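OP here, attaching both records as promised.
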Amino acid sequence: MSQPPYLSGQLLLSMPGIGDPRFERVVIAMCLHDDDGALGIVANKPFGDLTVRDLMAQLDVDPGVTPAETLVMAGGPVEPSRGFVVHSADYQRQSTISVGDRWGLTSTIDILTDIAAGKGPRRWLSALGYTGWGAGQLDTEMLRHGWQAAPGDADILFDVPRDDRWATAYDRLGIAVGRLSAESGRA
């Protein structure tokens, strides 16, 4: 069995009919993927109506200049009480994981205080939880047609409206989402 390429710095798009409602029409910013497993952050499903300002209040962080309407994303089903910020590569802290030159991932409270103070990354999205796979698990799921890899266009994460990210990412691949089927076939 051949192994798919490592997906760090790419977007992972769910295929229609993936079979898990938590992952229907999701866009995942892949932050880590190697022989030990994979970690990504869902970038288009809100964590209810929780705003970043609400989250900051829970953490006793003065929201400062943080935009009022910015929703927290449901980053995935793993550790939903743990916070993450996927952000533009212009921001770097000691705890930041650089994902090539595409974006960074920071999970310390420092980034929230920097965002509130206007010293954070230029573009960002926050999430609670992450999506994780054990060694070889994502590779197997991709071979079973549950996921589609797409270029890691940061503008899809940060500039495209949340509800349009999935279709936009497919569109950039030249795939019309209306023509996708939940049924797979064999040649």
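Record two, same layout:
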Amino acid sequence: MTYVPHIDELACAAHGDCQDIAPDVFRVDDIAVVIGTGPDDLILKAAQACPSAAITVVDSTSGETIYP
């Protein structure tokens, strides 16, 4: 599987947890942005760590929402 993260820009409070966990995938300035790809487990872990629940993870093959 290949997970793709999506950021809800209105929900993001720029805490930076996603960048701390997956710095090759996320960058946080005023809000988080997706800057690359990474292992599925790190993408999922970063999404689960977001205190604002601003990250949705989708399986790129099936289109299924993996998280939340």
